[in-house]
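Supplementary notes for students who missed Thursday's class. We covered one full example, reproduced here. Read the sequence, then the structure, then the short commentary at the end.
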Amino acid sequence: MRRRLLKERGYANVRTKATVISQGRITRTGKRYFYPVYEFQAGGITYKATSHSGYNVCFVTEGRQVDLYYASENPQLFYVPIIQKHDRRVSAILCGIGILWPLIGLFAPQIRALFSLLE
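Structure (token representation):
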């Protein structure tokens, strides 16, 4: 996830305004996920692009104008800063968990000894 975010930010450097034309609801096993669909113009051509990430909460509403950055040679490679903010937050939480669990395993004998002293 982190690699994709950095790749998008590295290549997508042309800023434009995009309109959210659909929230792109998809139901899986009784849960709703939102994949926003954006419409924007690049080089006189209108593009429709679907968000790479799905969310159970809709962060953008239909008809809203958002900033969108796209790669000049490939407009399908894009990112939306307002959405990427949530992706960064989730990836930071997952990285924190990925660091925390091995540390707990590493220090498990010391933690177990500490609890046995408290009994």
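Commentary. The two ends are 43 Å apart (CA to CA). The chain has a mean pLDDT of 80. If anything here is unclear, bring it to office hours.
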